[in-house]
């Protein structure tokens, strides 16, 4: 896995650059460690690059821990990579053996998912895919402002400020998932992987959002999608930024 995509000076100044405290996500034990390890190793390279470009680089200590996983046996490497990447997660999507969805927050504490008004914040979405299904994983939210709640896959991450736009009290943030060519916004059919999602709050103060994840590309039956409700506490952008 490449560590070339480190934190530049601009990224180091970003308000969201520091990782959240370790969330309460389980370390999944892969039933097939070799393919799980191969996908996670490629996944790490994608994430290092995207997170740095987005202004929330993986910390030096965590990059060192990810690099050290190269020397571990497959099963241990799968666990070590999860230990690191879980710290940057917003939520976990679990698909059981029949591809039924459940979604859980990475942390119950809103402080672990900080948002700054009119600044893009970048998070990982962990996927535990026991069904080994493939295909696009999409996200929607009825609280996302009109125009971004249905077309939310972009080809490269956003950094810095997002544009303000007229919105009601109930729709208060912008939402997007990172897709090709930066990284695939789709499931590869391995047991554990991570996708990247970005949020930009247009308001400050306590705000709630329901994020719904589902398999895209066709009709989705009941049970093959799942939602999580999250509380956020967006803060005001410091004066002069």
- Give the SSE order as H and E letters: HHHHEEEEEEEEEE
**What's the average pLDDT?**
87
Uncertain residue segments: 1-18
Q: Please identify the structural class as seen in this structure.
A: alpha+beta
Q: Tell me roughly what share of residues is in helical segments.
A: 10-25%
In whole angstroms, the N-to-C terminal distance is 34 Å
Account of the 3D structure:
The relative contact order is 0.19. The protein contains 4 helices and 10 strands. Helix 2 runs parallel beside helix 4. The chain is of the alpha+beta class. The strands form 2 sheets. It has a 6-stranded mixed beta sheet with strand order 2-1-3-8-6-5, with helices on one face.
Short description:
The protein has 4 helices and 10 strands; from the N terminus they run ααααββββββββββ.
Features:
4 helices, 4-stranded antiparallel β-sheet, 10 strands, disordered N terminus, 6-stranded mixed β-sheet, globular, 241 residues, alpha+beta
How does the SSE layout of this entry go?
Blueprint: H1 9-13, H2 33-54, H3 60-68, H4 74-85, E1 89-95, E2 101-105, E3 120-129, E4 134-140, E5 153-154, E6 173-178, E7 186-188, E8 192-201, E9 207-215, E10 225-232
Parallel strand pairs: 1-3, 5-6
Antiparallel strand pairs: 1-2, 3-8, 4-7, 4-9, 6-8, 9-10
Helix pairs in contact: 2-4
